[in-house]
């Protein structure tokens, strides 16, 4: 699938298996979302640009490299809040740009209701996070929103994805890479990913 990167790793596979289990308790589910996000971010940031710097060590001046971009993490409310701590462990100085979408349970479409971006958002590398890449509607709207705000470098990080959503997204935003831990079988008639893991927001926040 074009511009979709499936991040395969035994630790991610193992943690996903426990994450999917309906018997996994909310506190454990939250921990796993956090850990998988952390492991995935390593790959999703592999091509971030670097700039040369000189650093004075206790011994001599070392030629080194630092990130040449600032990162803005964009969690799609609310389930992605469970991924945020894992991301901060790797990029502690990232800014956060909140994107509020909620699913209309009748149309299954995403409805936008809130955004709060850092002032310098247009110059940042945006990493949109959402545990579930389902119909693709929210993802498309979120990227439309950021592009309209002038953001140029946008990538998407999702734990579990549906092929229908990924295909729809790639047709609209072929320039935006999607990093996912797995591509499941399909969407069901309620827009849930099969086999998926159920309602990620409910499982993260114990509201099911
Ligand atoms: N959102 C979820 O939380 N789960 C799904 O399966 C699809 C969308």
UniProtKB/TrEMBL annotation:
Catalytic activity, reaction form: UMP + diphosphate = 5-phospho-alpha-D-ribose 1-diphosphate + uracil
Binding site for 5-phospho-alpha-D-ribose 1-diphosphate: 78, 103, 130-138, 199
Highest rank taxon of the organism: Bacteria
Residues that bind uracil: 193, 198-200
Class in the EC hierarchy, top level: transferase
Family: Belongs to the UPRTase family.
Protein's name in the database: Uracil phosphoribosyltransferase
Provenance organism: Sulfurospirillum tamanense
């Amino acid at each position: 699938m074009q511009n979709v990167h499936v991040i395969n790793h035994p630790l991610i596979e193992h943690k996903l298996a426990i994450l999917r289990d309906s018997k996994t308790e909310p506190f454990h589910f939250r921990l796993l979302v956090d850990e998988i996000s952390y492991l995935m971010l390593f790959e999703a940031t592999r091509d971030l640009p670097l700039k040369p710097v000189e650093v004075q060590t206790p011994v001599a001046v070392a030629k080194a490299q630092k990130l040449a971009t600032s990162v803005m993490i964009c969690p799609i409310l609310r389930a992605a809040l469970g991924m945020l701590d894992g991301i901060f462990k790797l990029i502690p100085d990232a800014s956060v740009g909140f994107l509020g979408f909620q699913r209309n349970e009748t149309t299954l479409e995403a409805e936008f209701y809130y955004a709060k971006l850092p002032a310098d958002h247009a110059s940042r590398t945006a990493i949109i996070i959402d545990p579930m890449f389902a119909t693709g509607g929210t993802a498309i709207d979120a990227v439309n929103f950021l592009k309209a705000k002038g953001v140029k470098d946008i990538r998407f990080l999702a734990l579990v994805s549906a092929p229908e959503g990924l295909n729809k997204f790639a047709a609209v935003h072929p320039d935006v890479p999607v990093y996912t831990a797995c591509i499941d079988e399909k969407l069901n008639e309620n827009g849930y990913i099969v086999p998926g893991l159920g309602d990620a927001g409910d499982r993260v926040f114990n509201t099911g």
